[in-house]
Each structure stands twice: as C-alpha cells, then as structure tokens.
C-alpha cells in the first residue's frame, strides 16, 4: 500500500471513504459530488484496490486539484474489507462515512449527517437514499425518508433491524470503527452487513436524517447472479465469528436476540435470494443447509420476539416485511416466494422498499 502524499495530522470533522475498483466510468461524478460538499474541513480517502482501468489516474488528477481534501491509497487488490480497514486506520475525521465509487451524493450529505450526529450525540446516523437506474437516470424509489425516532440501542436493540445493511448512507463515530473487531479471513460477500453487526455492540444511540442524500445506482453489471460454494462457506464462517465476538463481549440477552434475528434476515432471506438468482442452484439443498446453520448457531431466530406480528403492527415497514418473510420461510414456501420476487424485480421493475 502506498499513498501519493502523507496526510497531515490535522483533525477533520468527517472522513469519507471511497473504495475504487473498475469504476472509471462513474468515478468522476462521485468525486465531483464529494468535492462539492457544503461541510468544510472534511477529507475524502479513496482506495484504488488494484483496479485495472484508469481509476488511479482519475484519483491522482483529483488529488492534485484538491490537495487539502483528497487522500489516495494505491494498493494491490485485496477486496473491499481490507481496503476500508486501511482507510479507517488513517482517517482523521471525528466521524467516518462511506460512499461507493459508482454512486454520488447530495451537496449536503456530510453536513446534514454531521449536524444530526452532533445534535443528537449519536454514534450512528442514517439518511435516506434514492435508487437510480444507471441507464435512464430515472429515480426508481426513494427510501428511508419517513420520519423515524432516534433510539437507544440498550433499550431497543430490535430497532437496529430497520437499518439497511449498506454503510453508504450512514455516519459512524470514528472511534467505533477504529476499535472494531477485524476478521482474519474477511467474508467474500455480505461484508457490509457484518461490519454493521461488529459495530453495533458499541453503538449507544442511533439517529436519522429523513432526507434522500445518496443516489444509489442500479447497474445490471453489478448484480451478482451466481454465488459459488466458497462464498457461501465464507459467509457462514464469518457469521460464526460475529457470534463469537458477541459472546466474548458478553452482550445483553436482548442484543444477542437481535443478532439471531439479524442472522435470519440476512442469511435466511437475503442470502437465499442471492443463491436463487443462480439458475443452477439447488434451492432445496441450500435452504436445508441454511436452516441447519441457523438452528445450530443462531437458535433464537425462530423464537425471538424481535420479528413478530406485534412489531410488524407497531413499527410497520421493514418489520412487516421481515414478519411475512419469516412466515414464508417457516412454511417452506421460500422457493416460490423467491421466484415471484425475482419476477417482480426483473419483469415488473418492482422492488420491496426498506
């Protein structure tokens, strides 16, 4: 790993981390949106993760024009997890955010999240986002812009289930990420979600900005349609490490119950959907293995009150989706449901909002 210049020791309000790999077509728009942020005293840390295209040339050009804001890490390809860890290690911001290099953000992205974090003394602050079709530029959905009350994780850890698993619409208190548990063998997929799970034991307070500040591009070439056995195995192994970490930390029973519910949400629903996109996948076998894994390692998934009818009625939105997803899973109707869901997305252009 090497950088074009050594960053100064000057403290920043916000560090924005941007992993870059094969995105030369989209990178300038992303960087333009970050350089134009209304919040002063931020830094933009870009990781060129051994990208074979012109990413590094684009990054160096922006670094030369914006030396006070841009920091470029040029390294061999090791994947997003390692790249983010390298950037977190040198980040000087009080808070850290993430932006995917093929997405872009509103000019007030940093300012709105930072002000909300400071005014609410939040460890984690979340904003809304748009899903945008990359070819037409059409906004497909606007998500997480409904008013949501700030909450204490100690009192209501189940409310963490309403957060999407991506880091690009959030601001984290930097100290949480700098002290976060690091995988010896990072998962090959679902690493975003697991980063959140590893941070949550240290999150005391979560707040929201009910504005869409991120433009998340839907690209046909970025959708993974096949998942080989090694990726599935690495996901399961990493999730077991997450559970071991929770046990080592001796987290509360309520937070452990949340983890079991989150395991069902991400492995029982999201992972099964990803596997179902592979036409050659044996869904019956995948679901059998999935349930065995959940029953053995996350036994509360089936009995936890976090995903329940009462919470579906009380909170609506994602809790309603999770409740019906759990019913479908327990009734062995997932193959049919996943087929219908893929038809909705691919043929009707309809996705379930979070």
UniProtKB/TrEMBL annotation:
CDD domains: Glyco_tranf_GTA_type (cd00761)
InterPro entries: Glyco_trans_2-like, Nucleotide-diphossugar_trans
A UniProt-annotated Pfam family: Glycos_transf_2
Molecular function in Gene Ontology: hexosyltransferase activity
Start and end residues of each Glycosyltransferase 2-like domain: 15-173
Protein name, UniProt field: Glycosyltransferase 2-like domain-containing protein
Annotated source species: [Collinsella] massiliensis
Lineage, highest ranks first: Bacteria, Bacillati, Actinomycetota, Coriobacteriia, Coriobacteriales
């Amino acid at each position: 790993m090497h950088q074009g210049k050594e960053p100064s020791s000057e403290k920043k309000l916000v560090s924005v981390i941007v992993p870059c790999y094969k995105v030369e077509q989209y990178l300038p728009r992303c960087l333009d949106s970050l350089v134009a942020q209304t919040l002063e005293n931020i830094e933009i840390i870009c990781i060129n993760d051994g990208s074979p295209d012109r990413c590094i040339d684009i990054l160096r050009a922006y670094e030369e024009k914006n030396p006070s804001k841009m920091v470029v890490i040029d390294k061999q390809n090791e994947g997003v997890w390692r790249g983010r860890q390298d950037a977190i290690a040198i980040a000087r911001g009080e808070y850290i955010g993430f932006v995917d290099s093929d997405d872009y953000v509103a000019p007030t992205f940093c300012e709105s999240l930072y002000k909300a974090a400071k005014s609410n003394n939040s460890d984690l602050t979340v904003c809304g986002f748009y899903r945008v079709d990359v070819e037409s530029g059409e906004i497909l959905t606007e998500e997480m812009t409904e008013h949501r009350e700030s909450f204490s994780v100690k009192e209501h850890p189940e409310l963490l289930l309403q957060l999407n698993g991506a880091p690009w619409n959030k601001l984290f208190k930097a100290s949480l990420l700098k002290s976060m548990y690091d995988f010896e063998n990072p998962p090959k997929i679902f690493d975003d979600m697991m980063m959140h799970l590893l941070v949550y034991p240290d999150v005391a307070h979560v707040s929201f900005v009910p504005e869409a500040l991120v433009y998340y591009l839907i690209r046909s070439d970025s959708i993974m349609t096949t998942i080989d056995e090694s990726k599935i195995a690495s996901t399961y192994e990493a999730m077991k490490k997450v559970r071991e970490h929770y046990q080592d930390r001796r987290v509360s029973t309520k937070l452990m119950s949340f983890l079991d519910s989150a395991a069902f949400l991400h492995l029982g629903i999201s992972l099964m959907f990803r596997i179902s996109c592979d036409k050659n996948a044996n869904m019956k076998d995948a679901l059998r293995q999935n349930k065995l894994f959940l029953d053995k390692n996350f036994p509360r998934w089936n009995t936890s009150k976090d995903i329940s009818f009462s919470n579906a009625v009380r909170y609506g939105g994602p809790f309603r989706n999770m409740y019906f997803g759990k019913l479908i899973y327990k009734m062995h109707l997932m193959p049919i449901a996943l087929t219908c869901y893929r038809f909705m997305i691919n043929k009707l252009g309809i996705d379930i909002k979070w």
